[in-house]
Design a protein that fits this description.
This protein is α/β, with parallel strands linked by helices. It has two domains: 137 residues, 3-Layer(aba) Sandwich (Rossmann fold), CATH 3.40.50.1000; 69 residues, DNA polymerase, domain 1, CATH 1.10.150. The protein is 43% helix and 12% strand. α8 links the parallel β4 and β5. The structure holds 1,6-di-O-phosphono-beta-D-glucopyranose and magnesium ion. The site of magnesium ion has 9 residues, from loops. Its EC number is 5.4.2.6. It catalyses: beta-D-glucose 1-phosphate = beta-D-glucose 6-phosphate. Keywords: Carbohydrate metabolism, Isomerase, Magnesium, Metal-binding, Phosphoprotein. Belongs to the HAD-like hydrolase superfamily. CbbY/CbbZ/Gph/YieH family.
């Protein structure tokens, strides 16, 4: 029986990728190289530290660990400035409504995100009361596709992983949910997220009946 849903943040509840993109692009510009939207796509669901490593590699630039920490901090300050100005209208279609519907049906909810800024975003958008637990980049040591973030979410909700459904937009996130023995709904393209149990374009397409049908699938 489905007892809990665990949601990724970027790409599922909000589109923060656009702000990550602007901040990384600014950093790349200061370092003297370009950064494209296609490259940004590859950073979805990837931690801040790993994202920086990839970007420096693409730019052909080597930095010491101390310099990398400074660069990641600088990028994050720009990013935080932007998310501090986000508006509730930026919540992705259907996300708030679906959270309310499942909570009314007695299903528990958790966030399972790689971001260390998830609480700022949820609070700013008035979404924090819709989550029973928030597990994010501040609470995990292993990144997706490792299932740690989702397993910690299930643990916080005191629900067996097999009774959880994860909502994810990144391939690594879908793999993480599967590795945690959870059902997973992919948000995006069925070709890309082929390992998911169900793929939808957004939470506006999701119904309680579809969620419950995953139990038998
Ligand atoms: P932060 P998710 C991920 O969020 C983003 O997709 C990814 O682009 C970002 O680098 C990562 O969070 C870390 O974010 O710098 O705020 O800690 O999709 O796991 O919700
Ligand atoms: Mg995501």
């Amino acid at each position: 029986m489905i007892k809990a849903c665990i949601f990724d943040l970027d790409g599922v509840i909000v589109d923060t990728a656009v702000y990550h993109y602007r901040a990384w692009k600014q950093l790349a510009h200061e370092l003297g190289f370009g950064f494209t939207e296609q490259q940004n796509e590859q950073l979805k669901g990837v931690s801040r530290v790993r994202s920086l490593e990839l970007i420096l590699g693409w730019g052909g630039v080597t930095k010491s660990p101390a310099e990398q920490t400074e660069l990641a901090t600088r990028k994050n300050q720009w990013y935080v400035d932007m998310i501090n100005r986000m508006e509730p209208s930026e919540i992705l279609p259907g996300a708030q409504e679906f959270l309310k519907i499942i909570r009314q049906a007695g299903i528990k909810t958790a966030l399972g995100s790689a971001s260390k800024n998830s609480s700022i975003i949820l609070e700013r958008l008035g979404l924090l009361p819709l989550f029973d637990a928030v597990v994010d980049g501040n609470h995990v040591t292993a990144s997706k596709p490792d299932p740690e973030v989702f397993l910690k979410g299930a643990e916080a909700l005191q629900v067996n992983p097999a009774d959880c459904v994860v909502f994810e937009d990144a391939i690594a996130g879908v793999q993480a949910a599967k590795a945690g023995n959870m059902k997973v709904v992919g948000i995006g393209s069925p070709e890309v997220l082929s390992e998911a149990d169900l793929v939808i374009r957004g939470l506006h397409e999701m119904t309680l009946a579809q969620l419950q049908a995953l139990d038998t699938g």
